[in-house]
Write a structure and sequence with these properties.
There is one protein chain. By secondary structure, the protein is an all-beta fold. About 0% of the residues lie in helices and about 40% in strands. The strands form two sheets. Strands 1, 3, 4, 5, 6, 8, 13, 14, 15 and 17 form a ten-stranded mixed beta sheet that branches. Strands 2-7-16-9-10-11-12 form a seven-stranded antiparallel beta sheet, with no helix packed on it. Strand 14 and strand 15 form a beta hairpin. The longest helix is centred in the middle third of the chain and has 4 residues. It is globular and about 50 Å long.
Length: about 290
């Protein structure tokens, strides 16, 4: 998912390796039973939980402001998106232990009187939680439909000073509605951004649809490697050797997290007569780990 004045994503430099991995998670003594409601899958050595949000607030409440900023606006976000992101409970709330982001087809006017045809929500942890290296994961049931674009992703915390793509971007999970059986994991930096982003798709077996259930989307990020996972499948590994000649590996400083559902844009295209609204993305949890002993 590209921030602000960014270019569209496309499907370049894909690879299809999908080895399976074993399970090994070590949780800190402060982990609550709610934080253990789902099991993660990683390689050993073990990880320790250092931050997370289980979205266990009261039904109808907004996400915890200690963790999240709700971005607002309808600038197109560099991708010619069609939605206006709001901070209304109609678009973002906690319900039954989950974060619910809802994309709606409705008339909505901004403070300048510009009318938009869609609304949705976009959350980020900038200046609230940022970390370099670790395992970053979320258990999500994505929405569906032509023109719907859910994402769980990360940006470098120096974006205000250096801009995009110099700050770096890690797309842990993106889906476009016209590809219901595929999700994508991608990295962006100077010289390999926008339609030159380096990424891989992951497909469910038998063309099953990701929107039909929850899946765990994760990256394991270490100083010279980023590994992409869906559930217990390691499907892509990125290292400095994957970059184009002269490009810089920018994954050496803290990043923050983002969750959003876009409507329309250069990559997914616009909704059509087949797209049903409202569409919701359900997030069971977001958790961040560090290597034990690090």
């Amino acid at each position: 998912m590209l921030p602000f004045l960014l270019l569209s994503l496309s499907l370049l430099s894909w690879s299809d390796g999908r080895p399976r991995t074993s399970t090994a998670i070590a949780r800190t003594s402060s982990t609550s039973p709610a934080q253990q409601k789902s099991v993660s899958t990683t390689d050993s050595p073990s990880w320790t939980l250092v931050w997370g949000d289980e979205f266990n607030g009261a039904d109808g409440s907004i996400p915890d402001s200690a963790n999240w900023i709700m971005e607002t606006g309808g600038t197109g976000w560099g991708n010619h998106e069609l939605e206006y992101y709001t901070n209304r409970v109609q678009n973002v709330q906690q319900k039954e232990g989950k974060l619910v982001i809802t994309a709606r087809h409705e008339g909505y006017s901004d403070d300048k009187g510009v009318l938009f045809g869609y609304t949705s929500a976009r959350l980020k942890t900038l200046h609230k939680f940022e970390q370099a290296y670790g395992r970053f994961e979320a258990r999500i049931q994505i929405p569906r439909g032509q023109g719907i674009w859910p994402a769980f992703w990360m940006l470098g915390n120096d974006i205000d000073a250096k801009g995009w793509p110099t700050c770096g971007e890690i797309d842990i999970m993106e889906n476009i509605g016209k590809e219901p059986a595929l999700v994508h994991g991608t990295i962006h930096g100077q010289g390999y951004s926008g339609d030159k982003g380096i990424g891989s798709p992951f497909a469910l077996p038998d063309q099953k649809h990701f929107a039909d259930g929850f899946h765990i989307y994760a990256v394991e990020w270490e100083p010279q490697v980023i590994r992409f996972y869906v559930d217990d499948h390691l499907y892509a590994t990125r290292t400095p050797g994957d970059l184009p000649s002269g490009a810089k590996w920018v994954y050496d400083h803290p990043f923050f997290l983002l969750l959003n559902v876009a409507v329309g844009g250069d990559w997914p295209g616009s909704p059509d007569a087949t797209t049903k609204f409202p569409q919701t993305m359900l997030v069971d949890y977001v958790r961040v780990y560090k290597r034990v002993g690090h």
